[in-house]
Amino acid sequence: MKLSDRLLAIANLVPKNSIVGDIGTDHGHIPTYLIENKISKKVIGTDISKGSLEKIIEYVKGLGLEDKIDTRLGDGLEVIKPYEIDTLIIAGMGGLLIRDILEKHKETSDSIIDFILQPMVASKELREYLINNNFEIIKEELVKEENKYYEIIYAKKGKCFLEKEIYYEISPILLHSKHPLLKEFVESKIIASKKIIKELEGINTAKSKERYVELNRLIKEYEEVIVEIES
Ligand SMILES: C[S@@+](CC[C@H](N)C(=O)[O-])C[C@H]1O[C@@H](n2cnc3c(N)ncnc32)[C@H](O)[C@@H]1O
After folding, report:
1. Of the N and C termini of the chain, which has fewer Cβ atoms inside 10 Å?
2. Which positions carry the signal peptide feature in this UniProt record (predicted)?
3. Domain locations in the chain?
């Protein structure tokens, strides 16, 4: 199994000999890779979609890995019992959905040691949830695939504190490690914000004016982060 750069970066964060739950596994590539490369002892691949799960069941059967990869149909952590897994992967979903999955089945979520989360959007809201709910963000990764950036968060239960508001959106871990993609990632956010500002210029409502001011403030903060990256 050859993984894409995004999935490989996720798999590289999985602890050796782990028992993993891959929520929303879809194609089942992560479970297969983790077992074939002897990273995990067992993986439970789950999905809310019957169609996705049937695909995985066939795929796992074809590889003869049914004894090591369990497949379950269900919503988030409802199909995982407390203490059944030590490592959780939730990748390729929105940050708010990831947050809701963690929050909905607290007994299971509280029994997990390692959390590998890859939000497609709303990474800021996900970091806010983690930091306000006794998680410590240990490591982060940034991957670029086909001109899109993917943030990957590795967290454990614990405490952490962010010095600046902007660090909920731009990871201080990536900043302090001077991640090679970080500058262009922040620049892409500036470009996107400027594009929205241009669109707002023709609209004369209180809401658009508020958003205009907010985006200009955000651009200043992004520019300060770029100065930090370059220092
Ligand atoms: C875009 S795919 C991501 C697949 C894979 N995790 C990846 O990162 O490449 C999202 C998958 O999550 C599943 N999904 C969405 N909400 C879910 C939920 N609440 N519980 C379990 N699976 C869910 C979808 O059915 C879909 O297969």
Report:
1. C
2. none
3. 5-161, 162-230
- Name residues contacting ligand 1 (CB within 6 A): 23-26, 46-49, 52, 75-76, 91-93, 97, 101
**Beta strands 40-47 and 69-73, pairing class:** parallel
> 5-161: which CATH topology?
Rossmann fold (3.40.50)
Minimal-distance CA residue to ligand 1 atom 2: 92
Query: What is the distance between the alpha carbons of residues 62 and 69, in angstroms, rounded to a whole number?
Result: 12
How long a stretch of residues is the chain? 231
Per-residue pLDDT of the chain (231 residues), as tens digits, is 789 999 999 999 999 999 999 999 999 999 999 999 999 999 999 999 999 999 899 999 999 999 999 999 999 999 999 999 999 999 999 999 999 999 999 999 999 999 999 999 999 999 999 999 999 999 999 999 999 999 999 999 999 999 999 999 999 999 999 999 999 999 999 999 999 999 998 888 999 999 999 999 999 999 999 999 999
Could you give the CA distance from residue 179 to residue 26 in angstroms, rounded to a whole number?
Answer: 29
24 Cβ contact partners less than 8 Å away, ≥ 6 residues apart: 46, 47, 48, 90, 91, 92, 93
